Amino acid sequence: MRIALISSLLLLNFAATSQVKKIQAETAIQNVTVFSSGARIERSASVAILPGRTEISFAGLSNQLDQQSIQLKADANITLLSVQSTKDFLSERKIEQEEKNFIDRNNSLKDKLDLDSKLLDVYKNEEAMLIKNQAIGGTSGVKTTELKDALDLQRQRLTEVYQKQLEIQKRILEEQQDAEKFKLQLQEISKKKDSINYIVTALVDSKETKNVKFQLLYNIKDAGWYPTYDVRINDVTEPLKVLMNANVFQRSGETWKDISLILSTGNPNDNATPSPLQPWMLGFFDPTISYNKQGLVPGAATGRITDDKGEPIADATVMIKGTRTGITTDANGFFKLQNFATNSSIVVSSVGYDSKEVAIKPGYFTIALSPGSQNLSEVVVTGYGLKKDDLVGSVAGLEVNDKSLREQKRESLQTVTIATQYQPTTLVYKIDDKYTLETDGKTTTIGMKQFEIPALYNYISTPKIDPSAFLTANIVNWQDYDLQSGEASLYFEGTYLGKIYIDLSAVTDTLSLSLGKDNGIKVTRKLAKEFSAKRFIGSNRTDTRQYEINVRNTKQVPVNITINDQFPVSTNKEINIDDQKATEAQIDKDTGIATWTITLQPGQEKKLGISYSVKYPKDRKVVLE
Q: DSSP class of residue 375?
């Protein structure tokens, strides 16, 4: 009997220890590594574990979680039996006060709209009754005075009815527009918050009671960062002053509160395997399908789509007008188009914004879309190292319209302290400061670092096309500054010049930045008529052209400038180009391009000349202008 009792107690004890215990772990985000597309979240939790098997649930995780990327680490000697992720369909999202206010206002607006619609029906019914009851007096007729009174009464009442209908219709239209605004704003507020969150469940086995610290790591999709630059040039004798900014956004469904931020130039979504080389099938050239015969423009049109506050618009549609060719912008608002015809236009559209048509050509474009009538203003959070009172721009709903004040304040922005790490394939920036990023898709801009870059400045002008002189900065050792491809705002001598895109993917040893026009360099090109003539000899005609190029430096410093012009190149043996002269110029015989590289002292002026003659049959026409 005693042996049976002991055996029963042992069995009960074994059953108690073998039963799986369930624990709900409370986690907090400690670090976030933001990639160019996507982010890696690191959560931590401290869990008291008893001997035996324990099922630990980590709930409330991002709805953008990538299930393939989940990792769970522990600082104790326990056995991890399994890890799985499931969607939490029973979770109920907390409605924030801002969203609740919008819902209440939207419901109130719907009630007004319903009431006005019914009131409009009442007046329309009255209108119908008045029209149907126009026949009065039967067949015997009525007296003149009675008829006049009846008509006056009907006219007066119909006029009142029509006025009421117009008032109600106008009110209904305004209410419908407001309802559409509230609908879109509600979508923006609750964006990504309505999605089902994830739960990660881990089954562990422990030999003893212990307090275990867990690290849960996973990737999310809808987040990222992109660099932008402020490039300032005060004088062509000074280095470039560059401010590098990081623009971070996230729509993960979870708030990153007071976290350490790490920015990585990597992208976990990129293809990790090299592309195989395909067979090169060589055939005869067919001019009917040649590149130029199709009228296609060589090169690519790249750019960025933003709203009127400069915030990138993701998933905007960029279509080549009149075709079915188009793309959508990436998470940072960038796009790239190739193989488009000459004189093409693109139509840019996005939900909540007015569409815009823009003529397209090779180069970089920044296209800002205006909010549609249904779109409400948004709050933009900036993350520079300034006090709240010092922030200038669209901060916490405050709009500052004085552009010069914004630019003046931008010059005094402070950068954060960062540590740069070089990894085999990526660059990582660790930021010392803590940040809080809401899951609203708004961009937080962080001033990362300021530095000066020595540059060789040179002006370029092609007066045959444009008499302007364009300043360029050539940077030789650009790799030493850890630059990334991104948009740059240019400032020259305190004046905002516009934006360019720094594309480092195709740059060799020297990075050239176009810094815009400089009105301090005057360039003119004119035809010297006294040296230009037409002559007829036999069956041929000879046209002589001579152009005079005048370059003047009105600045207070010496400048280097490159002037480009060209000779025509014959494509027909009946057309001969003779007497080509361009003193001191370098001439490319294949292209006919003549290039002068000169240095002008302050106030100095220099004259250049280019001349040539063209002989061709006089019964044919050659365009020389």
A: P
Question: In the listed set 418, 451, 484, which residue is the last one of a domain according to the structure?
Answer: 451
- With tokens 């152009």, the residue in question is 547
Report the interhelical angle of 97-132 vs 144-189 (nearest 10°). 160
Nearest Cα residue to 148 out of 160, 156, 138, 140: 156
**What would the pLDDT profile of 395-422 be if each residue is shown by its tens digit?**
222 233 344 434 444 444 567 888 888 8
Average pLDDT over residues 351-355: 82
CA distance 484 to 244: 9
Tell me the CATH number at 388. 2.60.40.1120
C-alpha to C-alpha distance for 191 and 615, rounded to whole angstroms: 70
More confident of the two residues 430 and 380: 430
Residue type, 608: L
Sequence-separated contacts (24+) of 273-280 with Cβ below 8 Å:
none
565 within 8 A of 594, measured Cβ to Cβ: yes
Length of the chain: 625
Task: Please report, for the chain, how many H helices and E strands are present, in that order.
Answer: 4, 34
CA proximity to 504, closest of 524, 486, 481, 489:
486
pLDDT of 9 > 50? The answer is: no
Task: Name the 3-class secondary structure at 332.
Answer: coil
The predicted-structure confidence for 264-279, as pLDDT tens digits, reads as follows 988 887 655 666 766 7
> Hey, what amino acid is at 451?
F
Domain's final residue, options 434, 451, 468: 451
* Domain span at 184: 97-189
Give one DSSP letter per residue of 262-288, joined into a string. EEES--TTS--SPPPPPP-------GG
The pair of three-digit structure tokens given for residue 172, joined into one six-digit string? 């209904």
Same domain assignment for residues 216 and 229: no
